[in-house]
Structures are given as C-alpha cells and as structure tokens.
C-alpha cells in the first residue's frame, strides 16, 4: 500500500481533496474560535476603558515573569511543531516524532508554570470573592477575566497536548502514514493556541510592569 | 504531491531539513526578539502610547505566526478568506462596541 492510500479516509477518493477539506474545516473552526476569544477580549477592553485605574492596579498584581516565560515556551513549542510538520513532509519519521514530543513537553511545561502562577495568585487572595486582596471593585472584574481567559486557554492547550502526543506516539509505533493531513490540521490548531496567548500577554501581563 | 516525488534523494532531504531549520529558526528568533522588546517596553514609560505599542507588537507577532507557522502564505485563497472573516468580524465587534462606549463617556 502506498503512503497516499494508507492516509486516505472515506468518503474521499483523493488525498488532495481530503487534505483540502480537512484544512478548510480547521480554518473554519479557528475563525469561530477567533470570534469566541474576540468576545472575551472585547469585554475585557470595555471594562478597562470604564475603570482604567483599577485595571492598572490589578495588572500590577499579575506576575509578568510567569507570563513572559510562558510566552517564550509557547513560541518555542510552535517552532518545534512546525519542524515536526516539515519533517513529516520529508518522510523523516524519527525527527517528526522527536519534534512533536518536544512540542508536547513544552506544552506541559507551560501548564506547570501556569500551575505555579495560579498557586501564587491563590496565596495572594487574587481569586474574586469575599477574601479578595484589592479594594477597587473593578479589580475583581479584571481578575475574573484573568482567570476565565487563562483557564479557557489552558483547556485549549491541554487538548492540543493530547492531539500532539497522540501523533508522536503513532509516529513512534509506525501506525500513521506520513502523508496524513492530521499533521497539518494539528499544527494549525497549535498555532491558533499560540496566537491566543500572544494576544493575552500584552492585555493582561504587560501593564503590570508599569505599575 | 505524488508518492514518487516524496521519495526524495537523501541529499535533497538533508537540504530540505537544513532550509527548514534556517527558515523556522529565523522566524522563532524574530518572535522572541519582539517578545523581549515588548517586555522591555513594559518597564518604560510611554504614557498613553503604552497600550497601543503593546498591542501593536502583539499584532505583528500574530501576523508572523499566522503567515509562517500556520502557513497562511501558502494555503488556498478560501482558507485565507476564512481566517480573514474571523478577524474582520472581531474588528467590527470592537469598532461598534468601543464606538458606543467612548461616545457615552
């Protein structure tokens, strides 16, 4: 069986059609996700316009170093992901598996750093509620967005880690055709998760450096 | 791409890998440099320009990831249109909502 035949799935009769539709499906999903995260960012921006001082104070209580470390980790993971994709394209199974494994490990590293950050935030009483540490009411709204946006992003990243780990595992076992469109679709999803974080970073963390 | 064309000569494969490391490595370094720039900017006082600067650098980074990592440069016109539709409608949502908020302040 050729590589193309091994990668082909019903109802497609050509791998190119299958790839084209798979990519279009993922781009459509990403466009809907852009609108979902866009609504969250818009809500954040509106409250920021209405309460600039409280948001600046609240941003000063985020940890810019955790945020920066995680941005660098995700950018590096995307580099590994795109190299894995290229290696698969060149039929280099071991290199592709290695790059995807590195991508998944970096994704896990992001979640571990995020875990430390969440622990610090909880210790500092930065969870909205009765014991909230800051006086300004709108600071609670800032941290509601902070917890909501970063948690939803973490869920997306976790899904990405599962998808990438699965591909790395299948590659190592030799159970997936190198021409499968799954590589491109997964890489696309990972890039989107990266883009969301690149948008979160200036909105939530960078203001903290100036306070 | 046919199966035959994928069974490339080892030298061609080596060149392909080297080119990919070079190209994607440069993209990665540019992204890290932009992030370092925005982090350094977070400790400078740019006044009212601070947020536009942060968001501007973020937008450039998003564009770079979209074009080079997500492959917008070589995908089909339909996929580019789909991605653009997502961004355009977010921009419309921001313009209408913030336009309303600012006129009420």
> Structural class of the secondary structure composition of chain B?
mainly alpha
For the report, how would you describe the main beta sheet of chain B?
A: none
Order of helices and strands of chain B: HHHH
Please tell me how large the radius of gyration of chain B is.
20 Å
Question: What integer is the average pLDDT of chain B?
Answer: 89
Parts with pLDDT < 50 across at least 5 consecutive residues of chain B: 1-5
Report the sheet with the most strands of chain A, covering strand number, pairing sense and barrel closure. Answer: none
Helix proportion of residues of chain A, in percent?
over 70%
Q: Approximately what portion of the residues of chain B adopt beta-strand conformation? A: under 5%
Q: Give the tally of β-strands of chain B.
A: 0
Q: How many helices of chain B does DSSP assign? A: 4
Characterise the protein shown here.
The complex is a heterodimer of chains A (211) and B (105). Chain A has seven helices and no strands. By secondary structure, chain A is mostly helical. Chain A is 79% helix and 0% strand. In chain A, helix 2 packs antiparallel against helix 6 (137-173) and helix 4 (64-89) runs antiparallel to helix 5 (93-123). Chain B is mainly α and 105 residues long. Helices cover 80% and strands 0% of the residues of chain B. Chain B has helices spanning 3-6, 10-41, 50-69, 77-104. Chain B is flat, with a radius of gyration of 20 Å. Residues 1-5 of chain B have low confidence and may be disordered. The chains are: A mainly alpha (211), B mainly alpha (105). At the A-B interface, helix 2, helix 4 and helix 7 of A face helix 2, helix 3 and helix 4 of B.
What labels would you give this structure?
heterodimer, A: about 210 residues, mainly alpha, about 80% helix, B: about 100 residues
């Amino acid at each position: 069986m050729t590589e193309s035949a091994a990668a082909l799935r019903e109802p497609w009769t050509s791998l190119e059609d299958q790839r084209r539709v798979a990519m279009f499906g993922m781009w459509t999903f990403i466009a809907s996700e852009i609108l979902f995260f866009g609504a969250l960012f818009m809500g954040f921006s509106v409250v920021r316009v209405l309460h600039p001082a409280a948001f600046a104070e609240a941003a000063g209580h985020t940890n810019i170093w955790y945020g920066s470390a995680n941005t660098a980790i995700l950018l590096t993971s995307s580099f590994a992901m795109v190299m894995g994709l290229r290696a698969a394209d060149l039929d280099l199974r071991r290199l592709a598996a290695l790059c995807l494994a590195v991508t998944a490990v970096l994704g896990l590293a992001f979640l571990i750093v995020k875990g430390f950050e969440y622990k610090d935030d909880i210790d500092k009483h930065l969870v909205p509620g009765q014991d909230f540490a800051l006086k300004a009411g709108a600071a609670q709204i800032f941290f509601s967005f902070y917890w909501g946006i970063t948690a939803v992003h973490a869920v997306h990243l976790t899904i990405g880690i599962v998808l990438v780990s699965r591909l790395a595992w299948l590659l190592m076992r030799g159970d997936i055709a190198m021409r499968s469109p799954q590589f491109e679709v997964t890489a696309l999803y990972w890039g989107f998760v990266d883009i969301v974080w690149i948008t979160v970073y200036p909105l939530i963390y960078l203001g903290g450096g100036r306070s | 791409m046919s199966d035959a064309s994928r069974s490339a000569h080892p030298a061609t494969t080596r060149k392909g890998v080297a080119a990919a490391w070079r190209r994607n490595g440069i993209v990665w370094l540019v992204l890290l440099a932009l992030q370092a720039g925005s982090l350094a900017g977070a400790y400078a006082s740019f006044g009212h320009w601070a947020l536009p600067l942060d968001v501007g650098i973020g937008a450039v980074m998003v564009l770079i990831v979209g074009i080079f990592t997500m492959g917008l440069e070589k995908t089909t016109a339909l996929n580019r249109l789909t991605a653009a539709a997502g961004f355009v409608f977010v921009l419309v949502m921001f313009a209408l909502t913030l336009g309303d908020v600012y006129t009420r302040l």
